[in-house]
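User: Could you write out the 3D structure of this protein bound to HAX? I've included everything you need below.
Assistant: Certainly. Input first, then the structure.
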Amino acid sequence: MTDNEDEPTLFEVKDKHLDTGLRGIPVGTCRTSFVDSIKGVHYVGYPITDLAEMDPEDIIFLLFEKRLPNRHESQEFRKDLAARAEEMPAGALRVLESLTPGSGHPMDWLSLGIQALGIADTTGDVREDGLNLIARMPELMATIFLLRGGHGLPESGSEPEKGMVENFVHLLGVSGKDSEDMIRVLRTFLVLHMDHGGGNLSTFSGKCVASGKASLYASMSSAMNALSGPLHGRANQSCLEFIQRIGSSDPDKVEKFVRSELAAKRPVYGFGHAVLRAEDPRAAAQIALGSEVCPDDDNFKTVKVLREIAPKVLGENPKISNPFANVDVASGTLLHAVGFHKPEYFTTFFGWARIAGISAQIIDERKARGGRGVPIYRPKYIGRDQPVQRLE
Ligand code: HAX
C-alpha cells in the first residue's frame, strides 16, 4: 500500500478484491462524517440521532465548518443563505419549462436543473458555488414539482428568510396546518440524509468528477445521476411501493409476504446494508417521528410490524450480512403521510439533502495537500483477456 516503511499498511489488495466495486478498499479520508457499522453515521463526530431534530441550516454549517454554530453564527448563516437565494438566476430554470410535464424521472430534472443553474452562474469557487446551490435548492425543487405536475412556475414569490424547508413548502403553495407536519418531516429527512461517509456512490462520483477540476455544478449533477439508481437513492421510492404492496399490518400476512418475496428472489426493501451491521439509527429516528406525526397511518403500521418480522426472516439466511432496517424503511411512508403521494419524487429529497455533504467533501478535497487538492482520480485497472494483437 505504501512505499514508506514507517507507515502502517492499511490494506493489501489481492486478486479477490478486483471487480468488487472497490468494496472496503481505503482510498481517502473524510472530515464531514464517518459510518460506524453498529452505531451508524456520525457528522463531524456527532452521532446522527443527536442531530436529527436540529435546524438543517445548522447541520450544513457543521458539515462546512466542522463545528456547530453559536446562536449568532446560526442567524448570520441563515441570512447569508437567504441572500444567496435572492440572487438566484431563476431565468435559467426556463429550460425545465421546455420539458413535457411528467416526462422522465424527477432525478433527471434535478440533474438538468443543477446544470442549468451552473451554466447561468458558476463562480469557479467550489465553496461559493456550493453555498449558492444549497441556498437555491428550495426554489429549484419547487419548480421541478410544479412544472412536472403541469402547474407552471411557482406562483408564490420565494421567501428564503423563512428557512429552506419552510420556503420550499411555501413555494408549493401548502400553508396552515397542512404545512406543519410536512415541514417537520422534511427538516428531519434533510438532516438525516445530508452525508454518509466518503465512499457511497453519489458522493464518490461527485468527488471523482470534481477531482478533474470540473465545476461544483457539473460535479453535483453527476452525483445526482449516480444517486438516481435503484440500488442507491431510488431505493426509498421502491420501499414505499413495497410497503403498499404488503397492504396489511397483520403479522402473519407480513411474514408470508416477506417469505414469498425472498422465494421469488426479490429484495426485501428497507432492510440490509453494504456497511452497517445493525439497525440504522436513522430508521429508528424516523420511526420515532412517525409515531408522533402519523401513528394511525396504514403504511406506518405496516412498517412497524415489518421492522420486527423482516430481521427474523432475513436472519435465517447466513449470506445476508445485515438483516436489520435501513434508512429507507420508513422515510417514504412518512413523506407519503404528510402529503407527498408520488414515490418517484422521494429521491429528489435525498439529492437535495446530499448536496450539502457532497459540497463540503468536495471543498475539503480541494483543500487537501496544502491547497493543491486531491489529484485527479485514477484507480488502476488490470488488463485481462487482451492478448497482444498485431496488424498483419
Ligand atoms: N433482501 C433480499 N436479499 C438481500 C437483502 C434484502 N434486504 N439484503 C441482502 N440480500 C442478499 C444480497 O442481494 C446478496 O445476495 P447475492 O449473494 O445473491 O448477491 C446477499 O444477500 C448478501 O448481501 P449483503 O452482503 O448482505 O449486502 P450487499 O452489500 O450485497 O447489499 C443492499 C446491500 C442494501 C443492496 C441489500 O441489502 C439490499 O438489496 N437491500 C434491499 C434494498 C434496500 O433496502 N436498499 C436501500 C439500502 C439503503 C441505502 O444505502 N440507500 O441508499
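The chain has 16 helices and three strands.
User: Perfect, thank you.
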